[in-house]
Amino acid sequence: MHQLTLAGIARALAGKQFSAEELTRDLLARIARLDPQLNSFITVTEAAAIEQAQAADARRAAGENGALLGAPIGHKDLFCTRGVLTSCASKILHNFKAPYDATVVEKLAAAGAVSLGKLNMDEFAMGSANESSHYGAVHNPWDPSRVPGGSSGGSAAAVAARLLPAATGTDTGGSIRQPAALTNLTGIKPTYGRVSRWGMIAYASSLDQAGPLARSAEDCALLLQAMAGFDAKDSTSVDVPVDDYLATLDQPLAGLRIGLPKEYFGNGLDARIGEKVLAVVEELKKLGATLKDISLPNLQHAIPAYYVIAPAEASSNLSRFDGVRFGYRCESPVNLEDLYKRSRGEGFGAEVKRRIMVGTYALSAGYYDAYYIKAQQIRRLIKNDFVAAFEQVDVILGPTTPNLAWKLGEKNADPVSAYLEDIYTITANLAGIPGLSMPAGFVDGLPVGVQLLGNYFQESRLLNVAHQYQQVTGWHQQAPAGF
Ligand SMILES: NC(=O)C[C@H](N)C(=O)O
């Protein structure tokens, strides 16, 4: 059962091959047996999952047959879940049980999905390796001595290890696509505003966006269909009708115009990854796509701009964690200032503190114009690069990451070396466009991801291209040994 995709599970449940409860119990047993090697879960909600599965079975027996009815999933631990620990993988929220459900959680529950628990992540989603979690690092099932990527590393490891068919993640600078690439999954970051951020603990509000990680493009389409849509509770949610993502999966690719940005194949890219990416291009050509060389000239400025804007927003968002109303509070504070200082000093980890300091500095009087305003101007140039590119092509294709999954601990002494891993993913967040990563093969037994970028609200196009590719290739079906 654990090898089935969401689409396969939907067929099996409809055909009464097993019940949602049997499936849930099977996966819970797998989690108990295998997750100690991976550390992908922060909380397993066993009893609630069995109840939800029984409710799904009852709805099915009453004649309902939604695609996600009884489908097991997990949520990244920054989606608020009512009555369940929502820690953001931080000590400062180690005792926070959310009083309400995030819109994404609510929507998936309404569709009948069964949540098996909350997944590990980088603390406050700050990281690309899932090593900054208060609950410990996550291991990559393809090689447990390596990182699974981040910040949705728990979601990626759990789905890759077949503990779950799919999970939610969030992507501020690559946090869905990069872990998907490093664990052989498909993951999509939708257009900014496509999925509600209500109830998602904020990191950088102008960049954060939720999306699915799964083992196929079809499964991403199934989940995104349930997650997307306007939400009056999120002021940045966009009131644009949601496409039927499943209806367009089978569209032929004849005439598809693919842009290859020369900057994505330059210095810093592991040449072996470059070769795999070009092999994907060859395959898409056979399916009728045409190629065009393009340029995204401001790529080189993306990392400095992102690492000003994201920390600036984080420094503001994280000011709410003060030890007063919820979360961690230091022992015996002597006065209010002591309470703030020690609760925050003891509650936040090193990477979070680094970003709060960088962000506070960038926003401070005298530096604001030099850093923050400058970064916003670069952001506009990056957006303009994409607008110009999408006048010539339908999708942009390149590597998701410059390197393969690295060894745990390898980049800890040098945070900038980890920031550089985001080079190909963060531009989509700065511009607000959708991006998808899908499996493109293996180098030394480690997965390689290829990234597709689309114009605003073109999620269906990205899912269509990935699905067509997955009809003629088998990379996405490979499972890590032992799982
Ligand atoms: N949250 C993300 O999208 C990950 C990115 N590497 C960051 O640390 O900001």
Automatic annotation (TrEMBL):
Looking at the record, the residues that make up the Amidase domain are 22-463
Q: Which residues form a coiled coil?
A: none
Keywords of the record, alphabetical order, are: ATP-binding, Ligase, Nucleotide-binding, Protein biosynthesis, Transferase
| Subunit-structure text | Heterotrimer of A, B and C subunits.
List the InterPro entries.
Amidase (IPR000120), Amidase_CS (IPR020556), Amidase_dom (IPR023631), AS_sf (IPR036928), GatA (IPR004412)
User: Can you provide one Gene Ontology molecular function annotated for this UniProt record?
Assistant: glutaminyl-tRNA synthase (glutamine-hydrolyzing) activity
Protein's name in the database: Glutamyl-tRNA(Gln) amidotransferase subunit A
Q: EC number(s) per UniProt?
A: 6.3.5.7
Taxonomy, superkingdom: Bacteria
- What does the record give as the active site? 76, 151, 175
Q: Name one GO cellular component term.
A: glutamyl-tRNA(Gln) amidotransferase complex
Q: Which SUPFAM superfamilies match?
A: Amidase signature (AS) enzymes
UniProt source species: Stutzerimonas kirkiae
Q: What does this protein do?
A: Allows the formation of correctly charged Gln-tRNA(Gln) through the transamidation of misacylated Glu-tRNA(Gln) in organisms which lack glutaminyl-tRNA synthetase. The reaction takes place in the presence of glutamine and ATP through an activated gamma-phospho-Glu-tRNA(Gln).
Record GO biological process: translation
Q: Tell me the protein family, please.
A: Belongs to the amidase family. GatA subfamily.
Pfam entry (one): Amidase
Annotated gene: gatA
Catalytic reaction(s) noted: L-glutamyl-tRNA(Gln) + L-glutamine + ATP + H2O = L-glutaminyl-tRNA(Gln) + L-glutamate + ADP + phosphate + H(+)
